[in-house]
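Comment on the following before class.
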Amino acid sequence: MRIRIYPALAAAGVIAIAMFNTTVGVYYQGKTAWALPDDLWATMVAAQRLLHLHVSGLYTPPTGLISFPGTALILVPVVALMDAAGISLHAQSASNPHPVSWLLAGPYEIAISCLALCAADALAIRLGASRVRRALLALAGAAAVWSVSARWGHPEDAVAVGLLLYGVLALDDGRRTRAAWLTGAALLVQPLVVLALPVIVVAVWAGGEGRLRGLPGFCVRAALPAAAGVGIAAAANWHATFTALTDQPNYPAIDHRTPWTSLSPHMAGGAVAAGPGRLAAIGCACACGVGYAFWRRRSRADALPWLLWWVALSLALRCVFESVMVSYYLWPTLQVSLIVSTRRLSRLIVTGALTTAVTFGSQTQSQGPWLWWSLMTAGLAATLACAGTAGPPARGQPPSPGQVPATVSGSLES
C-alpha cells in the first residue's frame, strides 16, 4: 500500500464517489431508483453458476455472456460472499429499485478494476516518473476507469488490461514465463487483449535477439488458460458456448451505431454480429506486430515506452472496426497512452486532459453512425499522437530498465 499509495487513493476516491452518485446522489436529481450499471447483474448470474459448478449454464440466458469464462470467474468471490449472506442477485427493476447486492458488488468490481491503475503506476516507476507524475497518472486513470466500472459495470476489461500490463512489466524484466502466464490470464478474462498479442510476440522474439528461442513456450502458456476455460465450457454445453463466442451479438438500438453497422450480419432481436469487425481488427493488429518488428530493427529508442505505445495502438483497433460501440470500449487505449505520456509532465497533462474529455464526451448520445464514431476515433488518435511524442526522461532521472540488461532491470525493480 505504501508503494502503490497513488492508485490506492485513486481507487478509494472512485469507490466513494461512485457509490454516493449511484445511491444517495440520485435523490438530488429528483429520482428514486438507484443509477446502476445494468450489465453487471447478468455477469454475476454467470459467476453464481460457476460457483455452483453449473458450467453448462455459463452461456445460457440470462447471463448474456459473450466473453471468455474469466469474465465471470473474477466475480465469484463477491457472489460467494452474497450467497453466504443470503443476499439476492435479482437485478434492478420497478419492484426492486434498490438492489442490496450493489452495496457489495459495487465496491468490489470497482476495486478489482483499479488493478489497471496499480499496473500503470508500476510501469510509470519503470519509466522514471516522479511522484507528481505518478499522482497525476492515478488521477487521470481514475477518471477514465470510472467509465468501465462504475458507469458500465464491466470490470473484466480493466482486470484484463491490468494483467496484460503486468505481463509487459515482467517481459521488460526478462521474465518470459511470468509474462506468458499473465498474458494468458488476461486473455482468459477478456479476449480484447488478443489485439495486443502480435506486438507482445514480436517483443518476445526481439528479446531473444531475433531467434525463436523461448517463443513457442511463451505462446503455449499464453494460450493455455483461455483454451482450458473455453474447452471446459464447450464440453459442458457446446452449442451455447459456440454460439455466444462466434456470433458476438451487439445492439445498435441501445448502443452507438458506427459506419460498419449496416455492413454487419443482422441477427434476431435487432442485434448485429460483431464478429466480422473484430476479425478485421485482429488482422490489422497483426499488421501492427509487423510494423513494430520493423521499428525495433531500425530504432535505437528506449524499447519499453514504445512497446506500450504499439500496444495502445493495437487496442485502439477495436474501436475503429467495431460494428456497435459502447463508451467503455475506448478505455484500454486511453489508459495505456497515459502510461507512455508519463515521461514528460507537459505531455502527461495534455494526454490526461484528452483522456478525460474523451471519457466523459463518449457518454453522450449519438445521432447517426458517423458523428460519435468520428469524434471518438479522432480523440483516440489525438491521445496516441500526444503520448507517442513524449521524449526521453528528463535529466537527472534514472534510465528505463529497457535500456539495460534484463538482469540489471530485475535488481532495479527490487
Q: What stands out?
A: The radius of gyration is 21 Å. Residues 393-414 have pLDDT under 50 and may be disordered. The CA atoms of residues 142 and 202 lie 31 Å apart. The beta strands are 249-250, 256-257, 272-273, 324-325.
